[in-house]
Design a protein that fits this description.
The chain is an alpha/beta fold. Helix content is about 50%, strand content about 15%. It is built from 28 helices and 18 strands. A 7-stranded parallel sheet has the order 3-4-2-5-10-1-11, sandwiched between helices. A hairpin with a 4-residue loop joins strand 8 and strand 9. Helix 14 packs antiparallel against helix 16. The longest helix has 22 residues. The radius of gyration is 26 Å and the shape is globular. The C terminus is likely disordered.
Length: about 650
């Protein structure tokens, strides 16, 4: 049996199986700490800087320990990478006979029942949607997994996927006539039989914490849960411990009911008319909020002109709809399911208007074409703590960004770990990269206050000479969409004025995957984006040598959830800024900075425009939390440093 020391040794199985493998001291120490936590069924919270090799550091001891392990990652992309590349590599190198399973949320699998229903219904908003659904029908006939990620000739964001997949609401479960062909059930059966199951955080909370049918059996059966990208857990937990009613859910309910009526009760035209009435009520609710996207507190929403009438319209339409469904529900499993969903939606809407729990924060999020009425718990610590204490198992939380300096108290308090009977073990391992040699941190002098109306103009003016010196190869990351659009326009004007043909990309011009592929392919592009590009983005090599961050990433204080939590902390006698807002900003800032140096050969400059990082006492906490790069406040030095980097390979822009 391979032991941990031998696994990572220069002549060990990993070195023999993986070209260029070289264990780092931080990686081995982390693996040893995880091994101890697995043996003791302990809780370990570990920050491991970029380049530590934390994936192997937790996979090796987990596979050697045996037993059933759930590994939860931050995104589906990381989930696929772990399952298809990292996990097989370690398993084969160690020669351990573990069975692996990949499990995603049900919306990631084709649903034969809904695909068949909606293909027959034939209602599509465009010819492209209809063509996409025909492609999905062909895919469903040949796929073994049903995983939509394998259907590469249909866009990831195609509306046809809504008609081809199920949701937690409209899944018929064991009552489904197509249950024998269900890809979700097949994936769950594989997960039940596997030794290592790879999930993502959304699935963990949606299907484990809420004890969804089938998946809830995984957690009691496992010996260990490992959370990678664990810094995302507080936000994800808040989402799934809350409730929401959205116009998108209402429209989906109306659509599903119409399809079920056509199939099982075609003589009941009144139910189809009621579905149309519900659709109109949902759209009227969205129209009550005007054209702009926004997040607002409950009190702001109810004060809006037209909101009360729109809510009353939804309630009335749902009540009529429920009455119609009650008379038809026995005619098919699908109609019975639509009745159950209607009853649940009415109950959630009633709770949103008159909450049973005083600790729930009520707020509204307005999207371009939808509105969501949300209830979010003030704290998730108590609920999550109960999960940790439910049964004896090891819990590992790891990320490149969990601590503020070496202090984990903010994270442990948010997740309820501070109050466990057996307190968690915490550890920080810095990156093995030579930041002093590989990177420079530039804090420009003379920047205006971030609240100044011309601040975005100053950010663009600061970024332009750096972009020229780097010959493109830059991320410009903004903390708001408005600032992003303004900075993008000004950089475009500046490049055009200098007749500089650098490709300029903007978030929203394509999917994140498409934009990153273009950025890598071009080799000299500038991408202006918002905080959705601050993490989970990996561009090693010459394509990225400059990251400009416009301001410290404090969440807007008027955000309804943040405002409620700030008020709660203030009432409890705490300083909300130092206890909650600043630590979250530090962790977010470390994520943004982490885009720059992704390998031992990368070199680059990080520019943080916000003058508060240097000028305010609390800014020093951010300054000290960033990697130990060379530091400057002089533009000429920053430009010269960028110009000293080797020139990039520039590809034909037309190829992208």
């Amino acid at each position: 049996m391979t032991d941990l020391a031998h696994a990572f040794s220069p002549d060990g199985p990993l070195a023999r199986a993986i070209n260029g493998f070289r264990a780092r001291p931080q990686q081995v120490e982390m693996a040893e700490r995880i091994e101890a936590a697995l043996k003791d069924y302990g809780v370990l919270v570990a920050e491991a800087g970029t380049g530590t090799g934390k994936t192997f550091a937790y996979l090796v001891p987990a596979l050697l320990a045996g037993g059933k392990v759930i590994v939860s990652t931050g995104t589906k992309t990381l989930q696929d990478q772990l399952f298809k590349r990292d996990l097989p590599t370690v398993r084969d190198a160690l020669k351990v006979p573990v069975r692996m399973a990949l499990l995603k949320g049900r919306a990631n699998y084709v649903c034969p029942y809904h695909l068949e229903r909606n293909a027959k219904d034939g209602r599509f908003q465009s010819a492209q949607d209809a063509a996409d659904l025909r492609k999905i029908v062909r895919f469903a006939k040949i796929t073994n997994s049903g995983d939509r990620a394998e259907c590469t000739d249909v866009r990831e964001d195609s509306p046809a996927w809504i008609a081809a997949t199920s949701t937690r609401d409209n899944c018929l479960g064991q009552e489904c006539p197509n249950v024998k062909d269900c890809f979700v059930m097949a994936a769950r059966r594989e997960a039940m039989d596997a030794d290592v199951v790879v999930v993502n955080h959304h699935l963990f909370f949606a299907d484990v914490m809420l004890r969804d049918v089938g998946m809830g059996e995984l957690l009691p059966a496992c010996n260990a849960v490992i959370f990678d990208e664990a810094h995302q857990l507080p936000e994800t937990a808040s989402l799934f411990f809350g409730e929401s009613v959205s116009t998108a859910q209402l429209l989906e309910l109306a659509r599903d009911t119409r399809s079920e009526t056509v199939a099982a009760a075609p003589d009941c035209r009144e139910l189809i008319d009621a579905a149309r009435t519900l659709e109109k009520a949902a759209r009227d609710l969205r129209l009550a909020f005007g054209a702009e996207s926004a997040r607002m507190a409950y009190s702001q929403a109810v004060a809006r002109h037209g909101f009360a009438d729109a809510i009353e319209g939804v309630e009335s339409a749902l009540a009529t709809f429920e009455g119609m469904l009650e008379a038809q529900a026995e005619r098919s499993e699908g109609l019975g399911n639509c009745l159950r969903r209607t009853e649940e939606m009415r109950a959630r809407l009633a709770r949103w208007q008159a909450p049973e729990d005083a600790e729930m924060i009520r707020w509204v999020e307005v999207f371009t074409q939808a509105v969501s009425l949300n209830a979010t718990p003030l704290h998730v610590a108590g609920v999550f703590k109960r999960q940790l204490e439910g049964q004896l198992r090891a819990w590992i939380f790891t990320s490149a960004t969990l601590a503020v300096g070496n202090d984990f108290s903010h994270y442990c308090n948010e997740m309820g770990l501070s109050w466990l009977e057996k307190p968690p073990v915490t550890a920080v391992w810095g990156s093995p990269f030579d930041y002093a040699e590989q990177a420079m941190l530039y804090a420009p002098s003379g920047m205006p206050d971030p609240n100044h109306p011309d601040y975005a103009d100053a950010v663009a003016a600061t970024a332009l000479p750096l972009i020229r010196a780097a010959r493109g190869r830059a991320f410009v990351l903004c903390t708001s969409l408005r600032a992003m659009r303004r900075v993008h326009a000004l950089i475009g004007e500046g490049l055009a004025a200098g007749d500089e043909a650098l490709p300029l990309l903007l978030q929203g011009e394509g999917s994140r995957t498409e934009l990153l592929a273009r950025f890598r392919m071009l080799g000299n592009a500038v991408l202006v984006a918002s905080q959705s590009f601050w993490e989970g983005v990996d561009v090693p090599g010459d394509a990225l040598s400059l990251v400009v961050i416009d301001r410290l990433p404090f969440a807007p204080p008027d955000d309804p959830v943040l405002a409620a939590r700030i008020e709660s902390l203030r009432k409890a006698g705490h300083n909300p800024f130092m206890r909650y807002q600043l630590p979250r900003a530090v962790i977010s800032m470390k994520q943004g900075a982490g885009r720059l140096i992704r390998s031992e050969t990368d070199r680059g400059l990080l520019c943080v425009c916000d003058p508060r990082m240097v000028g305010k006492p609390y800014g020093k906490m951010v300054w000290r939390s960033l990697p130990p790069m060379g530091r400057t406040r002089d533009e000429a030095e920053a430009v010269a440093w960028l110009e000293s980097l080797s020139p990039p390979v520039v590809r034909d822009a037309s190829a992208a």
